[in-house]
From TrEMBL, chain A:
Listed GO CC annotations: plasma membrane
Alphabetical GO biological process terms: amino acid transport
Record keywords: Amino-acid transport, Cell membrane, Membrane, Transmembrane, Transmembrane helix, Transport
InterPro entries hit by this protein: ABC_transp_permease (IPR001851), BCAA_transport_permease (IPR052157)
Protein name: Branched-chain amino acid ABC transporter permease
GO MF entries: transmembrane transporter activity
Subcellular location, principal: membrane
Ranges annotated as spanning the membrane: 6-30, 42-61, 67-84, 96-123, 143-162, 193-213, 228-251, 263-283
Record's subcellular location: Cell inner membrane
Superkingdom to which the source organism belongs: Bacteria
Topology class, membrane: Multi-pass membrane protein
Family in the record: Belongs to the binding-protein-dependent transport system permease family. LivHM subfamily.
TrEMBL record, chain B:
GO CC list: plasma membrane
Transmembrane segments: 12-29, 35-55, 90-109, 116-135, 161-189, 210-230, 236-253, 260-279, 285-306
Keyword entries, A-Z: Cell membrane, Membrane, Transmembrane, Transmembrane helix
Statement: the UniProt record of this protein carries the keyword Transferase: no
Signal peptide: none
GO molecular function: branched-chain amino acid transmembrane transporter activity
Membrane topology qualifier: Multi-pass membrane protein
Subcellular location field: Cell inner membrane
Main location: membrane
UniProt name for this protein: Branched-chain amino acid ABC transporter permease
Length: 293, 329, 268
């Protein structure tokens, strides 16, 4: 009982991280049909700049957090104006833009390498990591914070998408960008919102997850891939399906690691996703997009 | 200049020149290190011709080519370890690649664009994961040694291996030119567009997607065997993300959907870092910047740029800005 | 023209046989139990008001959709389960209502795509017959130029297909369809979006093709165009066939007049 509790909690924590990256990827995909290969790099920048501002510059907590989120938002604008817009202007198809975001990811890693070097760095804790008991479960404040933030960001995204006029515009763009444009929806603003909001989410993830994963400039790719898998598994068409996909992946991962060998967790998950894609090409919850094809 | 005028002609002339140049190269090189670089150019050419046929021409993206690259290398290493001679182990490794592609290709190719990209990336990651973790068979992260190549009792030297790779790379270019220059090329082009239209004209779209996918992974496997022989070892890094980045960079820099983009890109991507090592830590950053700049300013790669340059120099009247080949579907 | 129509109107040799074809989409019945036969050597027209099910029926015949019930026979062969890509080899060729060409290829290369069913299929078989493949390439190019000349596009053979205006793309599609040497040519609203001159040119082309023995089935909005061209016409309304006969019979048919005029009256 105790073991399964620990496993499920660990799964839920990682799932929150994967889920939020998946949600970010799906949000951007929803606004402009581009898969952002640099999403994990936002998390990496969040983690690394937390080290910079909290340890190297020794800023107080709140200004440090603001500075971290500032870095991530600037990176998002750089991605939009340096990669997405120029490629779009030149009529590049979505897959080429995806390769462009991959280039951006390499640039981000390369730049981070110059600043922080290739070594794994210690990341300061925003919250204590001591074990504590919540009912029958053993956990720590960091885990709880991640899960709570996951839930809060999901709720915020839901509110934005379904309870605001702007959210209606985003969803309309997601269903049919051309029609939305004809209806007077300014898609460039929506695309910018997609980049900024998803970068913000990833930056917050970076702040929280640093102490668990450690800080290393190459960590972005793994997170991007996990986020993709989450989005593909759940269904790229809906941010919430993507988040659910992330939780599912992490739970399976934790269960395989807990009861089998952690060595095989990744291959098993990828194989599982591959199999699911064969039966449901648009993801487990992907009817939304499938209907459009 | 129209694609048509290049059809039929030009299938073998330029590859012949490349062959001659490739055979001369070792006489101009001073060190074994440079020979290794020249060999790697051949290997990347083989690998990226496959990717070019699949994505540049047929518009089907696979981000799992590094998986097949590693699969070919591992299959060859394991078979050699089991005592198979070269001439049996090589075709068997390629058959393994073809077999695996057939098995995963049927369901995989039902997916399109991003989904196909991600699912094939999944395959690549599974393979890299298994290769580094199934220690009993693959040697884990340390990998396996690949013995020096012996053909009919003769120990093949590095220079001879290089000659072999040049010949194979040129043969692969010839194969590509034959495909692209005939009806097969038009059929590949039709796959990227309207599938219903292609089917109505009698093209078995599913079968052709599978065929070109198999061909590209066999070429990736062939390149993998070559890399294993040149490196004298295999390890999980063969199937990891940097190889995929290399494939994409070679293809974009050289020019997707062009005949000699893979070769040009391979030359640049192999040689440029030699200059970049002076930059040390800057290397990764510059790699990314180059990839982005090429996407932005040379969407047809060096190949397209050189062609435009030739047109302007030799046929000023015909130099209309009408680039016809799109970078991707 | 009309004299020829009455002579041929007795169906001698059926090439396309549609028996009780139906197509449902969920609860919607798009085509309801339609039967007719197209005789070899005829120009057969399919007309009907908007939403009558013409396009769906056409898609059943071409194989883009498979019928919910009924059978479609081509050349005495049941076709409703035959995969789309096998049909051109059997002698069916089509054009599309919204033109579908292959961007990135030239006009000539687009026509050459039509040769596909008669060429060596597959990469390995092509490699095994390299000499043959390379040799036929030149002959195919010549043949494609002839086809383009036939439809009047010889001057644009080497241009990117993206440069052609709509009317010429229609003609290109016909040339491409002819490249497979079909026995039945299926035209989906070929006159849609053409101006008067282009429509006349199209009518002449179809008549020329028919005179050389080609059977044509066409779906069309433009009734005047159809009356002068077709040997027989079937009329669809609300998914059902309400009439079939020679153009003159159709023009006098009460149900047809009601379907068209009734609707027109209600629209006015």
């Amino acid at each position: 009982m105790e073991q399964i509790g620990v496993i499920l909690l660990a799964g839920l924590t990682n799932g929150s991280v994967y889920g939020l990256v998946g949600l970010s990827i799906s949000l951007i995909y929803g606004t402009n049909r581009v898969i952002n290969f640099a999403q994990g790099e936002f998390v990496m920048l969040g983690v690394m700049s937390a080290i910079l501002f909290m340890v190297t510059c020794a800023l107080p907590l709140l200004p440090a957090i603001a500075a971290v989120l500032g870095v991530v938002l600037v990176a998002a604008l750089a991605l939009e104006f340096g990669v997405y817009q120029p490629l779009l202007r030149r009529g590049a198809p979505p897959l080429t833009i995806m390769i462009g975001t991959l280039a951006a990811a390499i640039i981000a890693t390369g730049a981070a390498l110059l600043v922080w070097g290739p070594l794994q760095l210690y990341v300061p804790n925003v919250l204590p990591l001591e074990a504590m008991r919540v009912g029958p479960l053993i956990t720590n404040p960091q885990q709880i914070a991640i899960i709570v933030v996951f839930a809060a960001l999901l709720a915020l995204t839901w509110f934005l998408l379904y309870r605001t006029r702007f959210g209606l515009c985003i969803r309309a763009t997601g269903v049919n960008a051309r029609v939305a444009l004809l209806m007077g929806i300014r898609s460039r603003r929506i695309v910018r919102f997609g980049f900024l909001f998803s970068a913000l989410i990833s930056g917050i993830v970076g702040l929280l997850v640093g102490p668990l994963l450690g800080g290393q400039v190459g960590m972005g790719v793994t997170l991007t891939v996990k986020g993709f898998m989450a989005a593909i598994l759940g269904g790229l068409g809906s941010p919430f399906a993507a988040a659910a996909g992330g939780v599912l992946i992490a739970l399976v991962e934790a269960l395989v690691a807990g009861y089998g060998s952690s060595l095989y967790a990744e291959p098993i998950i990828f194989a599982l996703i591959l199999m699911i894609l064969f039966f449901r090409p648009y993801g487990l919850l992907g009817d939304f997009e499938a209907g459009r094809h | 200049m129209n694609r048509i005028h290049a059809l039929g002609t030009g299938i073998w002339q330029i590859p012949l020149l490349i062959l001659l140049a490739g055979l001369v190269v070792p006489h101009l090189l001073s060190s074994g290190f440079h020979l290794r670089l020249a060999s790697i150019v051949c290997i990347y050419t083989i690998l990226c011709v496959g990717f070019n046929l699949l994505y540049g021409y047929a518009g089907q993206i696979s981000m799992g080519q590094q998986g097949f690259f590693a699969l070919g290398a591992y299959a060859y290493a394991l078979l050699t370890q089991a005592g198979w001679p070269f001439y049996a182990a090589l075709p068997a490794s390629l058959l393994v690649c073809a077999g695996v592609t057939l098995v995963i290709g049927v369901p995989l190719l039902r997916l399109r664009s991003h989904y196909l990209a991600m699912a094939s990336l999944c395959f690549g990651l599974i393979f890299a994961g298994v290769a580094s973790r199934w220690i009993d068979v693959t040697g884990g992260t340390a990998g396996m040694m690949v013995p020096s190549l012996k053909v009919a009792g003769h120990l093949v030297s590095r220079t001879e291996l290089y000659y072999g790779l040049v010949v194979i790379a040129v043969a692969v270019l010839l194969l590509q030119n034959f495909i692209v220059g005939t009806h097969l090329g038009r059929v590949l082009y039709s796959l990227r567009g309207d599938e219903t239209a292609a089917e109505s004209l009698g093209v078995n779209v599913t079968a052709y997607k599978l065929r070109v996918f198999v061909l590209s992974s066999v070429l990736a496997g062939l390149a993998g065997v070559g890399f294993a022989l040149v490196s004298r070892q295999v390890n999980p890094s063969f199937g990891e993300f940097p190889i995929l980045v290399t494939i994409l960079t070679v293809s974009v820099v050289g020019g997707l959907g062009t005949r000699y983009g893979a070769l040009l890109g391979a030359i640049v991507v192999v040689l440029a870092p030699q200059g970049l090592t002076a930059f040390g830590d800057l290397e990764t950053l510059l790699y990314g910047v180059c990839l982005l700049l090429f996407l932005l300013f040379m969407p047809h790669g060096l190949s397209g740029f050189l062609r435009a340059l030739c047109l302007r120099l030799f046929r000023p009247a015909a130099a209309k800005p009408a680039p016809r080949l799109k970078v991707s579907p | 023209m009309n004299a020829m129509v009455s002579e041929n109107s007795a169906v001698s040799d059926v090439i396309l046989d549609i028996q009780g074809a139906s197509k449902h989409f969920g609860g919607l019945v798009a085509v309801n139990d339609v039967s007719f036969q197209v005789g070899a050597g005829h120009v057969f027209g399919l007309i009907g008001p908007n939403g009558a099910g013409k396009s769906t029926l056409f898609n059943l015949v071409t194989g883009v959709l498979s019928p919910s019930a009924g059978e479609i026979g081509f050349d005495r062969r049941p076709m409703s389960r035959a995969p789309l890509h096998t049909r051109s080899a059997l002698g069916m060729a089509r054009t599309f209502q919204i033109v579908r060409v292959f961007p990135g290829l030239s006009v000539l290369e687009n026509v050459m795509m039509g040769f596909h069913p008669r060429l060596v299929d597959g990469i390995l078989p092509s490699l095994l017959r390299i000499a043959h493949v390379l040799r036929t390439e030149r002959a195919l190019r010549q043949r494609a130029r002839e086809l383009l000349a036939f439809v009047g596009l010889e001057g644009r053979a080497d241009e990117p297909v993206e440069h052609l205006p709509h009317g010429q793309l229609r003609l290109l599609e016909i040339a491409r369809a002819l490249a497979s040497e079909p026995r039945l040519l299926l035209l989906d609203e070929p006159a849609a979006g053409l101006n008067d001159g282009e429509t006349r040119h199209l009518g002449t082309l179809i008549q020329q093709l028919n005179r050389s023995g080609l059977t044509v089935l066409l779906v069309e909005h433009n009734i005047d165009f159809m009356m002068g061209l077709c040997h027989r016409i079937a009329v669809l309304d609300h998914g059902c066939k309400i009439a079939e006969g020679t153009p003159r019979e159709i023009q006098r048919d009460d149900k047809v007049i009601e379907a068209y005029l009734g609707r027109r009256a209600s629209h006015a």
